[in-house]
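Review session, final week

We close the course with one last complete record, chosen because it touches almost every idea we covered. It is Arylsulfatase, a protein from Bythopirellula goksoeyrii with 772 residues. Go through it on your own first, then we will talk.
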Amino acid sequence: MKACHALAILTVVIACPCYAQSQLPQRDPEFKGKIGETYKESTPSYPAPVRAPKGSPNVLIILLDDVGFGMCSTFGGPVPTPNLEKLSANGLKYNRFHTTALCSPSRAALLTGRNHHSCGTGVIIEMGTGYPGYTGIIPLSTAPVSKTLKDNGYATAMFGKWHNTPEMEISPAGPFDRWPTGLGFDYFYGFNQGEADQYHPTLYRNTTPVAPPKTYEQGYHFTADMTDEAIEWTRNVRAADREKPWFAYFSTGAVHAPHQVPAEWREKFSGQFDHGWDRQRELTFENQKKMGVIPADAKLTPRPKELPAWKEQSDDAKKVFIRLMENYAGFMAHTDHHVGRLIDSLEQSGELDNTLVIYIVGDNGASAEGGLEGTFSELASLMGVQLGLQSTIKRIDEIGGPTSEPHVPVGWAWAMDSPFQWTKQVASHFGGTRNPLVVHWPKGIKAKGEQRSQFHHIIDVVPTILEACEITVPDEVNGIKQKPLEGISMRYSFDDANAKDRRTTQYFEMMTNRALYKEGWLACSRFGVPWTTAGKEGDFLDSPWELYNVDEDFSQANDLSAQEPEKLKELQAEFLVEAEKYDVLPLDPRMAERMDPRNRLEGEPKSDWTYYGNRVRLPEPVSPLIFPSSHTITAEVQVPEAGAEGVIACCGGYSSGWTLYIQDNKPHFAYTFFDLANSQVDGTMELPTGKVTIKSEYEAVGPMEKGGKLRLFVNGQPAGEGQIKRVGFRSGGLEPFEVGRDSITSIVPTYKDKGDFEFTGTIDEIKFELSK
């Protein structure tokens, strides 16, 4: 009886080869040897590692940032992308593929195969609120594809921009379960937040902060660095195991602002955009039709009334706008070059043929966050501050270099989204949500150099990967029941250009810009403009709705809301059904207003912080949030006989931040706020040797833009005072808060040539207190 029962169980296991995959990680293997009294009477059975199905492809996801549908030459745009063209010529390009219109949401949807609100990421992580669709926390019930592939025998790694760890968890205290290495990636090299200075990034290797391998002066650029890392990792995996497939998520910070690129790449485009954004859209549109990227009957959508015409710009403005666009184009070409290096390395090693490359050209449309005039500092724009044209004119020759954080004006972003209306953030229109997609897999796709026009969404990538790899979607991961995948595999379209669309419905929503696609129709409503990042006027519920038959109207050019009111009502009602189903509610139009990290603190906000020693480093959101409030900083230090110098504490970087430091054996405090206000308070008293108390007192005098008075003290004695002209509630978040050094970029030029400018004494204790 027992033998028959065992045989029955064995039969079930053999008949269901995917049994182990339904629960991840897979169970410990059964011991199949024999155990006797000694090893001589025993037979070993060493536990075999989990292996992917034989012949499984490698998987490479390439994701660019802030690239419009009409930017790259592969899809008719003005920027040559020969490496993208090479992949498309031997693969497939999709011209009706969609994203969510914003960074973190697209990335969460990409990795989980669920809609962005379903995985808690209805907005970027920095804007998370306490509603299920907007936490910025990917739920345990939506495990990413990296976890599924890893637990099915894949090596996994992530390179570049992550932007899916809750902001308050990007700290030495963790928790680290929502960092890349906690979500299925064996290895991570990149940055955790929404953007990075390309010359001075805040980098992590796994969960440890690391410095770039060389300096800007030595030729450093992050895109090149992450490419080097990816090439090295893929080669080492193959060197260690000839058969083990790998999954690499290669997610560039490019071409998100700051648009920083070596001058020789910008110079390649000198004079190529002198005709302006209106003409550029026309040229791109003509080229897209010629190439067949868009249908012959597609229409070029007109310039929105909120955008100025090129011909209306002054000569000075045109000069600046052209330079910003040349720089942006150079950044894109530079990115294509380095992606090409990675692809070439796979071709050289013989791995490219069986690597499923899914190349998504942008996590949303081109960005309008630079404002109508562009900006020398995009960080300022995100904080609701427009520096104005004069700021960029004064520093035009620095654009693209290490002292700039530039961003193109809205007109160029709109031009790069040709033929569609609008830009990034605007989920109601394809300019925000339609991105080029190229799929390359010679071993798995018969068709070469063809175009596909099925309607698909970024949530469709995960089921496509799992079907290609013959891996079952897990029901449970780490004991947590999983939400069903909401994506639909695209593999049916790989070898059939005329295959009927399998995605018939898809909602879109971002900060109340919303739409509902269903069976060839799309109803949509837009609220405000994307360059107004704070204080949008009016009520989004009053925003009009539009209606398009996008099966016949490729570019959303012909609004049918007046002619088809019943169809519009039907789709409006359907949007609410989808919104309730996928945690889209409550709708919230705010942007910058939600970016204060204090919104995500548990309990009452802190009013004091104490640290010990010279080596404290924390991300700004979990550091002392002292500005714009009145506060004191008190440092108890030991000064050696020879005197002391160096940074006691600081937060931020060269464009925005504050620093309390010692130079010439005297205390100093500096606050820089982009080009708007740079304040310096110099001490008048030298530090004695031995134990010394250094204190700064800041007294706010009104709103942030009014600043306040700052006083310095040494051992209780007045040691200098001055005015801090203007402050913000954060420094931009790209560089950390530190005690004992300023390790990435110098906040003030005073100590720029001194490296990290480490404090040469000992910091026993430093305390930050908000005034009552």
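Two points worth writing down before the exam:
DSSP finds 14 helices and 31 strands in the chain.
The first strand starts at residue 23 and ends at 24.
Good luck, everyone.
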